[in-house]
Amino acid sequence: MKLIILIYQENNRTKGTNGKVYKIEIKVICMDKSRIISLFGGIILIVAAFLPFFYFIDGWYSIFEITYAVLMNFTNNSVMQNFLLQVNPSYGMAAMILALIVAGFLLLTIGGLLAIFKKAGGSIAGPGGMIVLTIAGFLYAGSMLLGFIGIGFYLGWLGAIICIIGGAISPDKDKSKINVSVNQQQNVTTTGTPLGSNQSSENLKSSSGTKFCNQCGYQNKKDTSFCVNCGNKI
């Protein structure tokens, strides 16, 4: 995907002549394939965090819902103790599982946002979040993990893989824009002969008894050090 912008400017910088300076600026803004892939992967990561992810305790919940429940009841000791016992008979193991789920949710959403706003930004945080959530699933369900994972889990891994591909396609992450500037200057002499014509400036300077100003093109005597017309040193 390319956007080409052409800017044409004309201004009169010379003095006492009709010499004009033409400036053509071409800007090419490229949105390469890796950027599009990363954007797509980031959207999938964020959507996955809000879809049914695990069968947790008594039903299907997204990791957003589990994280929200943990953070809202974190200061309520009785509710948290009951919550931990439902997750695992061991308080330490239950706390570890919940901590991994909260960390995985944060990594998944941060990775998704980075992938949307920055090329290859989610290629680390996104997969990292899914690894953490997979570990949490194994600690919770063990070998029966496949029966406890929902569509959010599969979409999360899909988005993480897409982000990795987007980051691997283009290792140079700084070339999201290519700016090409072309400056063309044309100075017209008082005799009507432009410097850009087939007659080179060397041939003009070699004319008998004359010397041309390289700024305004005025024809001066050979022994002149400064242009009579514009005062430029020649």
Topology diagram in text:
Elements: E1 2-11, E2 20-30, H1 33-48, E3 54-56, E4 59-61, H2 63-72, H3 77-87, H4 91-117, H5 122-141, H6 151-169, E5 178-186, H7 201-205, E6 210-212, E7 219-221
Helix pairs in contact: 1-4, 1-6, 2-4, 3-4, 4-5, 5-6
Describe this structure in words.
Residues 189-208 have a biased composition (Low complexity). The chain crosses the membrane at residues 36-57, 91-117, 124-142, 148-169. It comes from Candidatus Methanofastidiosum methylothiophilum. Keywords: Membrane, Transmembrane, Transmembrane helix. A hairpin with an 8-residue loop joins β1 (2-11) and β2 (20-30). The protein is rod-shaped, with a radius of gyration of 34 Å. It has a 3-stranded antiparallel beta sheet with strand order 1-2-5, with no helix packed on it. It is 46% helix and 18% strand. It folds into 2 domains: 2-31 and 177-221, no CATH class; 33-169, no CATH class. It contains 7 helices and 7 strands; from the N terminus they run ββαββαααααβαββ. It is an alpha+beta fold and 234 residues long.
Number of strands: 7
Reported for the largest beta sheet, the result is: 3 strands, antiparallel
> Could you tell me the radius of gyration in angstroms?
34 Å
Distance between the termini: 48 Å
Class by alpha and beta content:
alpha+beta
Strand content: 15-25%
In total, the number of domains comes to 2
Poorly predicted ranges: 1-17, 172-201
Q: Helix tally?
A: 7
Average pLDDT rating: 76
* Helical residues, percent: 40-55%
Element-level helix/strand string: EEHEEHHHHHEHEE
Strand order in the largest sheet: 1-2-5
Overall spatial form: rod-shaped
